[in-house]
Design brief:
Chain B: One of its GO terms (molecular function) is GTP binding. Chain B: InterPro entries: Fe2_transport_prot_B_C, FeoB_GTPase, G_FEOB_dom, Gate_dom, GTP-bd, P-loop_NTPase, Small_GTP-bd. Chain B: Pfam families: FeoB_C (PF07664), FeoB_N (PF02421), Gate (PF07670). The complex is a heterodimer of chains A (80) and B (606). Chain A is α+β, with helices and mostly antiparallel strands and 80 residues long. In chain A, 16% of the residues lie in helices and 40% in strands. Chain A is built from 2 helices and 6 strands; from the N terminus they run ββαβββαβ. A 6-stranded antiparallel β-sheet of chain A has the order 1-6-2-3-4-5. Chain B is an alpha/beta fold and 606 residues long. Chain B has 25 helices and 9 strands. In chain B, strands 2-3-1-4-5-7 form a 6-stranded mixed β-sheet, sandwiched between helices. In chain B, strands 6-8 form a two-stranded antiparallel sheet. In chain B, α22 packs antiparallel against α24. Chain B is globular, with a radius of gyration of 27 Å. The model of chain B has no long low-confidence stretch (mean pLDDT 90). The chains are: A alpha+beta (80), B alpha/beta (606). Chains A and B meet through α1, β3, β5 and α2 of A and α3, α12 and β9 of B. β5 of chain A pairs antiparallel with β9 of chain B.
């Protein structure tokens, strides 16, 4: 396991609650994720992950958001 | 004065718009239903106020064409009604604060108020008003609650208070406001919410998805056939046929006028499908063959849209869609295209890159038959057995997949990842569904009937002018060689420019074998869109890209038609085995290319 307790959204298990630490991506990715409320400091819960590089579904605030594999890889969370 | 309705996607702007202006627009439960602006008018104390429904946007920095439309509209508003989802205050307020910075008079409609209450979310509107410095009115637009109050307070709209500067400060301000005005009480998950989660889990999601598709198909068949057999056909046979027979007799049973109006008599009788008269086939095709299935299709689609299933479908199919250079959300234009390619062509605006738009338009227009055409295929091909209908749709799906894999390999650029909000499931109200169905049907009537009548008229002119023989002689050799079809079938291709349903319809008098019908239907779907879809795509893609799409369409049509012809008459299952192995080869190439990409990225470091 990672000593700093930081994982990408792909690495954490379904049902795990985490706090967004940072977005390891370009400005476009950051802009799109911020717009949907995936912002550093926010708590999110991973709901599911589709097989074969499919999307990850998370709960953030009152909504559910689906992030494609590529974006999910860029969201770094701290497990709380 | 004009008023803009601005807000995040899927917060109910179009519903508020319909309530304010009485102008009906299509609304659904998924982000990105509205991709263009619509104008309507509201009478405010005797003054005629223009209200504009604007596509949804999360921020004022657009990431797709639909959002660009929204942002480009902003300078034209004297007043903004910011529609805010009360169940989702935090995310919505970001846009609200961005709008406040523009210093345009504004009022907030805190929509979905009823749903927020059910969810145990309480918003202190007085406090919110005080903090923002602008009026805040709770509304539940679907039921019309709060709309009167919104209109009454519209004149109070004013510029608000702005005490932040940078985007970070803006986020901080949102957080502060939410903490002050919102209270959330916990409560147990309802059955619908459990179903929401199950719909996006791998195993249960795919099971539910298959069940939804299966049920949708069964219901469409059941309702469509039911309407045809018990209502529309009896109406034509019992009610309309005797009148037409009297007209036929009065006109002497033959002659130019008779053939134009009533059509050719088949074995001395009027045959609604084959006579090809304006008053016989011209009405029978749109009303008794196509309309029943259109009703059935849009009833089912409307339910799935408003229930909120489509975004979940996008999640399930994201993996597959990436193989063809798209992401899951591109399934929405494909599904809309099954109804009509015109709205589907517009909804492609929700996709982010030019590459995605090109691929999505190409695949949609080539391999997705509209339901008018599908209904005719059911009617003409279906009577030879479900096998042949399934053959057509399997071939089209195969073309879709193969062409997508090929385009994804050949086109430069990459596909951005899927990122969508998944709305909650909502049980649709019958009244709302009926309104939407009515809207879509009236569109069908306006589009379909004139074009079908025009098509029948043109066929008659072609027959009268002796062009049929000429066309059959000219195209006969090519058509027979490539597709195994008689030269007359070329007229169907001509009519396909007008409308696909009538084009399939005029294959009926040609006495084709079921195999020939399969070839002809496939070629008709693929070779070129109808005029209406062509014009929409031309506008969305521009001349250059549309030229490329046209080239791809014509090539695909020739290849696909020849392939199906050969598969039927010469190589049989062997042809399909070859085709499938090529596809599997492409899939393997795609997977290895992806691995390589991932490895390169890994080396470069995070």
């Amino acid at each position: 396991m990672n000593p700093s307790k930081q994982y990408t959204l792909l690495e954490i298990k379904k049902g795990v609650r985490g706090r967004v630490h940072r977005i390891a991506g370009g400005t476009q990715a950051v802009k799109r994720l911020y717009a949907l409320g995936i912002i550093p400091g926010k708590e999110i819960v991973k709901v599911s992950e589709m097989p074969l590089h499919g999307p990850v579904v998370v709960n953030v605030e009152q909504t559910q958001v689906a992030l494609g594999f590529g974006l999910a890889k860029k969201v770094i969370v701290e497990v709380v | 004065m004009n008023v803009l309705l601005v807000g995040n996607p899927n917060v109910g702007k179009s519903v508020v718009f319909s309530q304010l202006t009485g102008t009906r627009v299509i609304s659904s439960n998924y982000p990105g239903t509205t991709v263009e602006y619509t104008r309507g008018y509201l009478n405010l104390n005797g003054e005629r106020v223009e209200v504009i429904d604007v596509p949804g946007s999360y921020t004022l920095e657009p990431t797709c064409k639909a959002e660009e439309v929204a942002v480009a509209m902003l300078p034209y508003g004297d007043v903004i009604i910011n529609v805010v989802d009360a169940t989702n205050l935090e995310r919505n307020l970001y846009l609200t604060l961005e709008l406040l910075e523009r210093q345009v008079p504004m009022i907030v409609a805190l929509n979905l108020w009823d749903e927020a209450q059910h969810k145990g979310i309480l918003v202190n509107t007085a406090k919110l008003e005080e903090i923002l410095g602008i009026p805040v009115v709770p509304t539940a637009a679907l039921s019309g609650q709060g709309i009167k109050k919104l209109i009454a307070r519209l004149p109070e709209a004013r510029t608000g208070r702005v005490n932040w500067q940078t985007p970070d400060e803006r986020y901080a301000a949102v957080g502060r406001i939410v903490r002050e005005v919102q209270q959330v009480t916990h409560r147990h998950h309802t059955l619908l919410e459990q179903l929401e989660d199950l719909s996006v889990m791998p195993l249960t999601g795919f099971l539910l998805g298959t069940a939804v598709l299966f049920c949708a198909f069964k219901v469409i068949r059941f309702v469509g056939e039911g309407l045809i057999n018990f209502i529309f056909v009896p109406l034509f046979e019992k009610g309309y046929a005797p009148l037409l027979e009297r007209l036929s007799a009065a006109l002497g049973g033959q002659g130019v006028l008779h053939n134009l109006l009533v059509g050719q008599l088949i074995d001395g009788k009027i045959d609604f499908v084959q006579s090809l008269g304006l008053l016989s086939t011209g009405f029978y095709v749109p009303l008794a063959m196509v309309l029943p299935y259109i009703i059935a299709f849009y009833a089912v689609l409307g339910f799935l849209e408003d229930f909120g299933y489509l975004p979940r479908f996008a999640v399930l199919l994201d993996g597959l869609m990436h193989r063809v250079g798209l992401h899951g959300y591109a399934i929405i234009p494909m599904i809309l295209g099954l109804g009509c390619n015109v709205p589907a062509g517009l909804s492609i605006r929700n996709l982010e890159s030019r590459r995605q738009k090109f691929i999505a338009s190409t695949l949609m227009v080539i391999a997705v038959p509209c339901f008018s055409q599908t209904a005719m295929i059911f009617a003409l091909v279906g009577r030879h057995g479900g096998f042949y209908v399934a053959y057509i749709f399997f071939t089209l799906f195969y073309i879709w997949l193969f062409l997508g894999l090929l385009l994804n390999r050949k086109l430069k650029g990459y596909t951005p990842s899927l990122l969508i909000e998944i709305p909650p499931y909502r049980l649709p109200e019958l009244r709302v569904l009926a309104q939407k169905l009515y809207l879509r049907l009236s569109h069908f009537f306006k589009e379909a009937i004139p074009f079908i009548l025009a098509g029948i008229l043109i066929v008659n002119i072609i027959h009268l002018s002796g062009f049929t023989g000429l066309a059959a002689r000219t195209f006969g050799p090519v058509f027979r060689f490539l597709f195994g079809l008689p030269g007359d079938a070329v007229i169907a291709l001509f009519l396909g420019f007008l409308r696909k349903d009538v084009a399939v319809g005029i294959l009926a008098p040609l006495n084709l074998t079921p195999e020939q019908l399969v070839v002809a239907s496939t070629v008709l779907t693929v070779y070129f869109p109808c005029m209406a879809s062509f014009l929409i795509l031309l506008r969305e893609l521009g001349w250059w890209d549309m030229l490329k799409v046209t080239g791809i369409m014509l090539t695909t049509a020739v290849v696909a038609g020849t392939f199906v012809n050969l598969a039927f008459h010469r190589y049989g299952i062997l042809a399909w085995l070859c085709a499938l192995s090529v596809t599997i080869g492409l899939l393997i190439l795609d997977t290895s290319a992806r691995r390589k990409d991932a490895a390169v990225q890994e080396e470069r470091g995070p």
